[in-house]
Design a protein that fits this description.
The chain has 94 residues and is of the alpha+beta class. It is built from 2 helices and 4 strands. It has one domain. Helix content is 21%, strand content 22%. It has a 4-stranded antiparallel sheet, sandwiched between helices.
């Protein structure tokens, strides 16, 4: 399964394309695609270049967790910096 991810242009946040075609910061809410549907979703996202930068596909599990060869990179992108837990998305949970 794959999901579409990018960085939002106005604030640089990591975002994911959801089922309604909107961008969400929650990986668990990302739409999951298979085969040609994934490529079509990515192509549609790239046409919205005024909203996002660097859209691409990532592998995800059925629950929406990062999977495959880029698991570490995507986990860090979703959670924020690894050197200081008082920064990034993980700081909001404190």
């Amino acid at each position: 399964m794959k999901a579409v991810t990018a960085n939002r242009l106005d604030d640089g946040a990591v975002v994911y394309l959801d089922e309604s075609g909107q961008w969400t910061a929650e990986l668990a809410l990302a739409a999951r695609y298979e085969g040609d549907d994934a490529e079509a979703a990515l192509a549609d996202a790239k046409r919205r270049a005024t909203e996002i930068a660097d859209g691409y596909l990532i592998e995800v599990t059925e629950t929406g967790a990062p999977a495959g060869r880029t698991t570490l990179r995507e986990t860090i992108r979703a959670a924020g910096p690894t050197v200081r837990e008082d920064l990034g998305y993980q700081a909001a949970g404190r």
